[in-house]
Amino acid sequence: MKTRALRTGLELTEIGLGAAQFGNLFRETTAETSADAVERAWDAGIRYFDSAPHYGLGLSEERLGAALAGYPRDEYVLSSKVGRLLRPSPGTADRLDDEGFVVPAATRRVWDFSRDGVLRSLDASLARLRTDHLDIVYLHDPDEHWAAASTTGVDALVELREQGVVGAIGVGMNQAEMLAEFIRRCDVDVVMVAGRFTLADQRALDEMLPLALERGVGVVAAAAYNSGLLSAPAVPDDAHYDYGPAPRETIEHARRIARVCEAHGVTLPEAAVQYPLRHPAVASVVLGSRTAEHVASTIERYRAHVPDALWAELDAEGLVPRPEREDPRHVGRTS
Predict the structure, then answer these.
(1) pTM of the shown model
(2) Are the C-beta atoms of 34 and 22 separated by less than 8 Å?
(3) What CATH code is assigned to 13-250+270-305?
């Protein structure tokens, strides 16, 4: 699989495996299923793996760490996130987590972007992931915590980067506007933008992506299917978008895109996987996978032939803009 480099020199495979589903997102899975997904990803050439304490109250990190334990640590890139500390909560251990993960609520998430909070969160993640360092650490969803995240949070990560405990540092969010502010004001190497640079939503093109390109900040695009809207060749009436039922106009817009894709012999999810990689600031597209079969499907979509005429028609019809027009270097893939 081809790679793209961050300004730190770190090489990311163009496809990364997102491990949120390893933490029993929406339904239970098993450690064996997670390990099989990692094995399939490794065999396909994926060398970038992402998790977070938020995913299953640490379960995703535990399963990903166990699955990667048999592989050479210097041959893959591992990222996780800080900002949500996990604290014991015995009083709620008899109920399930209320943030979408089917796990006992024996711990609770506490927002903390202080230096101490970042260090404690990272130490716990390193233990769960069975490693002594992380290649990338993101501040996770600081939407309501700009003041702390942009000061003590970033400062703590810069300190860790200087110590060599962390390679690249950045921010991961479901919005593009605040990510642009982090790029503009803070010493970050990479940002992860979820759902805002897809076939259905290109808000990251307004400011964030041009700014990232100008400043040399890498971009990891996540949630390329927008909660399932773009995950199948035909868009169903009950499609989801941004973690809820998709509005009728959103469904119709996606169907218009799907019809253009079909006319060019391409499926909607194939185009969804490959679209973000057309922007020169994007280093990798991280796609969540639960099973080995999910990984295999992702790889097929990544390797599918998508003619340039498809992107030209989507742009001409006003459905999806061609992001590569912003830079004459186009995408500049490396081997």
Answers:
(1) 0.95
(2) yes
(3) 3.20.20.100
